[in-house]
Amino acid sequence: MVSLPRRSQLTPQLNPSRNRSGFTLIELLVVIAIIAILVSLLLPAVQQAREAARKSQCQNNLKQLGLAAHNYHSTYKYFPAGGSQALNRPSDPNDPGYSFLVMLLPYMDQPALWNQVKAPLDTTDPPDGTIDFPPFGNNHYSSDYPPWRVQVATLLCPSDGTRTDPNTIADTNYAINWGDNSSAVIDRNDIPCRGMAQGGRWLGLADARDGTVNTLLYAEIGRNYSGRTWQGGVMRDVNIGPYNNNTGYPNPGNCLTAASDPDNPGRYPAGPLSDRGGSYTDWGGHATGFTTIMAPNGPSCTDNGAPWEDSIVSAGSYHTGIVQAVLCDGSVRAISETINTVTAGRASEAMVATGKSPYGVWGGLGTRDAGEVISGDEF
Question: What pTM did the predictor assign?
């Protein structure tokens, strides 16, 4: 009789070490490759979502500024002057000093800061009765005055990063419209003032005769010029002169030429720079103003070492391809950096004190009473 093998003898004896579950090297590499592809697809989307949130916050900041300006207008029947020594009309209109942002503090939900600014300040703790600073401090440019070092969050665009030095005067990413003539910047002469800012003079809705929806009030400016970005600084000692008090610079196009670095588009070449937005209390053009001569996100220039006056100071932001702005009606618009800025045949800034702006649609948005008719589709 033939005996059959036992079941145990028919079952192959498996090596226990070969029964362990796991990935082969090829499988592991495939998984890593899939994860890398997913990360490469998702990371740009995450970054875009974050920038969209920052842009939205910046837009909200501008809305708050527009609302503050209109609340101020409801009280005084005009917007804050480009520079002044008082909340309302100063006693000496020939000596303006504080920016429009200082005058908007009580309308920007900053009652505690405003109350400290407008009163004499005793800096000892506890107070010893000694007045160390008069109301508004000794001037608009001293970082020794504690209130000026307080950073108002509404004045910073999150796309431009945080404030760099808490021991200096607080920063701003928002500026007032000085118009399309560089000689208007901190000038008290009525002739070249074509925007909504002027030293020692208050302008209101009635002055925006081109239409409140066609006239810029405030717009973004960049900071952090350490990277030599056009948005963050003003290039000094540029040959755009000789300067004329009524017609400004005869060769504003030289600003674009001098500021261009072929190896680093959008950044200044070697040369002296001054910062933008580094002092929200300062009414100087480099600190809290912009002109509509160069395109948004374009360069800023002056022919001397004084960027606070008689300067081409451009609006700019770190949002891709745009700047955001408040119009005189209080609305906020995103304006493309490719907006029309140059009228064909323009060779100089001559005659900009009268008539339509020679700087295209962008220049027309900067003027309050030049007779331009601008369609919303143009910007």
Answer: 0.84
